[in-house]
Design goal:
single chain, about 850 residues, 8-stranded mixed beta sheet, 6-stranded mixed beta sheet, about 40% helix, disordered N terminus
Length: about 850
Amino acid sequence: MTSLALFSLLYSLSVLTLTDSSLSSIATAAAPAASKCTLLNSFQPGFVVQGDYVIGGVFPIHYNVKMPDLNGTYRPPPINCNGFDPRAFRWAQTMRLAVEEINQNPVLLPNHTLGYKIFDSCAYPLTGQRAVLSMLNGVSEENSSMCTNGSSILAVIGASGSAQSIIVSRILQPFRIPMIIYFSSSACLSDRRQHPTFFRVLPSDNYQVKAIARLLVHFNWTWVGLLQEDSDYGRLPAKGLLKELKGTKVCVAYQEMIPLLYTHRAGLRIMKVMQHSHAKVVVVFAGEGAMAPFLRDYMTQNITEIQWVVSEALVTASVFSGREYYPYLGGTIGFGVRKGHISRLGDFLQTVNPKRYPDNVLVHELWESLYGCSPFPSSVTQMPPCSGQESLLEQNSAYMNTSSPRVAYNVYKAAYAIAHSLHNLLLCQPGRGPFQNNSCAQSNNIHPWQLQHYLQEVNFQIAGEMVNFDAKGDSAPYYDIISWQRGPQGNIEFVNVGLFDGTKAVGEELLIQKDGIMWAGHQSEVPVSVCSASCLPGFRKAVRRGEPICCFDCVPCDSGKINNQTNSVDCTICPEDFWSNNDRTACISKKVEYLTFDSLGIALTVMSVVGACFTLAVCGVFFCHRHTAIVRVNNSELSFFILFALTLCFLCSLLFIGKPTYWSCMLRHTAFSITFSLCISCILGKTLVVLAAFTATRPGHNIMKWLGPKQQRTIISSCTLVQVLICAAWLFDVPPFPSRNTQYEHSKIILECSVGSSLAFWCVLGYIGLQACLCFVLAFLARKLPGNFNEAKFITFSMLIFCAVWLAFIPAYISSPGNYADAVESFAILASSFGLLFCLFAPKTYIILLKPEKNTKQHLMGKEKK
C-alpha cells in the first residue's frame, strides 16, 4: 500500500494545478522555469459541451487498468486503461441526452444552458482521482480559471464505484461542490461529517445488505461464502452483512478478498477455498473491474456448481452477458437498482457513431468493441477496417440495451435533479427557501455550495417516480431482484423476478416470483447450501464444538420429549400425563396400567376362586363328618373358624385386582390383615388346645379347665381385636388411597394403592408375623407328643411355610413395580392360604375320605390293638 500511496501522490501532483502562493515552492521545484500557474500534465475528457453552467460526469468507460512501473525514480507514465465497457459508455451518453433535453426544455432553466465535461475513471480509484482533478482544472491552460477564481463546475455526476466515489467526494469537499452518485452504494458515504456534499439516486448498502440477508434466509441458504473486492465497497458491505446475519440461521463459511492488484496465484487460492467448502452459495460485493480477471481464471478452472448472489454493482454487468459466461454464471441472482424509462435514449445512442465523431477515441473503441473492426485503421491498431455499413440497430449489445435502463436511469435522474435544483436556485426569492437570512444568488455568480442547499430540498417527478433526498442524501430503498437467465441465443439475459421494498415492515420487504427461475447449473430446483442437513422432526440440533452454529449433528429427542419441527435446537417436554411416541414427534397419552383381568389377573382370580372352593369343599366334608373322631378330636369349632377365615383370605386377594378406588384401597389391606389375623388367631388357639390336651394327661395337671370353648373364643377375639384396632387407627390417621405413579416408569401411569402410612402397613404385617412366630414356637414344642395324629406337627409345618412365604414377600414387594407389587401381595396371600389349607386339612380330609378305618379315637390316640 506504500507504493500505491506514493504513486497516487505522484499522479495527483502531475495533474494538479497549483493555485495559491502556499504551493509556489512546490511548483518551482516541479517546474523551475515556470513563472506562473501552469498545468503539469494534460488529461482530456471524453466529451465536452460548453454552457452557462457546467456539470461534470465520471464514468468507468474502461473496466481494467494496466499499472505502470512504480519505482518512484522518475515521473510515471500514463495509466493504460483497457477493457472497453459499452454499458458504461451508454451511461455517459445518457447524461449527454439528459443535458440536451434540459437545454431544449422551455420550462426548465429557460434562457440558460447546461454544459458538461465527461471523463473516464477506468473503474479505478487512482484514475478517478485524476479525472476529477482534471475536471476542476480545465481541459487546457487557456480555458482553465482555477488559477484566478473558483471552479466552473457546479456539480458532478459520479463516480461509479464506491472507492472512486469516496475519493471524488473528498476532493470536491473543500470546494463545496455537490456530487450525485448513480452507482455507488457504500453506506459510509451517508456520513454527512465525512461527505457533506454527497447525494445519490440509489439506496445505500445498508439496505442492500438487509435485502441480501433476507434473500439468504428466504431460500434457507444457511452456509454461504463471502467474496469481496479490496475497497470500501467490498469491505463495508461485507462487514454489514456479517452484522445483519447475526441472530439468523445463516453462517458465513469463508470470507475472501480479491486483491486490488490481482494476481493469478491469489485467484487460484480463493478458488481452492471455494471448491473445498460445502458452501454452494457465494455472496459477492465487487464491481466489474475486480471481478473480470477473477472470472477469467474461474472459467479456466471449469467451476460450475457455484450459485452467485451479487450486489447491484455486478447484477446488470453486461460485460458478463456473453454466451461463454452462462455455464459459469447462469442462475446468478442479485439486487439491482430499479429500472426506469427513457423514451429518447435508443434514438440518441444511434447518433453516436464514428462518422459524427471522427476524432473521438471513445467512439472508435465502441465500434471496435461491438464489431471487432476499426473505423479508421492505423498502424497502432491491428483490427481490420470497418465496412461502413455497420448498424447499431442490428447489433444486440449492452450498448443498445435500452428496454430496461437501470444505472442509465439513475444518471438520467441525477442530471434532472441538478437541473431542477439550479432552476429553483435561479427562482430564489429573498427570505424564502434555504437562504432565508441571505440574499439570493445572481445568475452570473452562482456557487456550488448554493446549489447543494437546493439539492437537499429538491422534489420532482420524472417518468412517474418522485425524486428526492433524505437528510443523509440517500434515496428511497427500492431494489429489483434480477436473475441471470439463458436467452434464445445462449447469452445471459437479466430477468426481473421480484422486488425489495425497504419501506415495508420487517418480513414483508421481499417479493419473489420463483416460477421459471433457472438456478446455477441450469437447475430448476432451488440450490441447497447448508453445512449440515436439516434435522427432521423427532431430532434436535447439537452444535459441534468449535464450529459455527450452522454446523451441527442431529440427535434424537430423549424419551418423554418431542420435536415436531425441523432444525429445532431443543425438544419439548411432554405434559405429565403424556409421553412421546416412537418417532418423538407427538405427545400421546400415557398408558395407564394396573392389575387388571389380563392373563396375570385371570390367573390370580382363578387361584383365588379355586382356593375358596377347596376351602368350602373341605368345610363341607368336615360338616358331613362332624361326628367322626378326627373332626371331634381336632376341635371342630376351631376347624370351622379356620376354614371360614381361609375362605375370606382367598377371597380378599380379589380386592387387589381391578382399578384402584378409594374404597378398594382401604378394604384390600384391612380385609387382608384382619382375615389373616383371625386365621392365625384360630390356629394359635388350636395349638394351645393341642398342647394343653396332651399336657393334661400328666398327673397334677388340670390346664384344660382354662382352655374351654369360652376361653378359646376369648383368645381368638382378643388377638383379632388387636389387629382391628391397628387397622382402625390406620384408617383414621392416614388411610390407603389410590395414587398415580409416574416415576417408576415414565412412559406409563401406574394406578396403585398407596399405603398412606408405611408405619401402619408394616405394623399390620408385623403383628401377623408375631402371631405366626408364636404359633410356630408352641407347635414346635408339641411336635413329639404321643399319638398317631399329632396335629402340632402339621401346624409347625404350616407355620413354617407361612413364614417363608411372607419373608420372601418383603423384598419381592419392595422391588416390584406398580401393578406387579399388587400381584406379589396377592400371590403371597394365596400361597400362604394354600399352605395353611393343605398343611392343616389335607391329612384329615385324606383320612376321612380315603382311610375311614383310621378315623377312630383309638387309632388317633395310638391305643389301637395290634
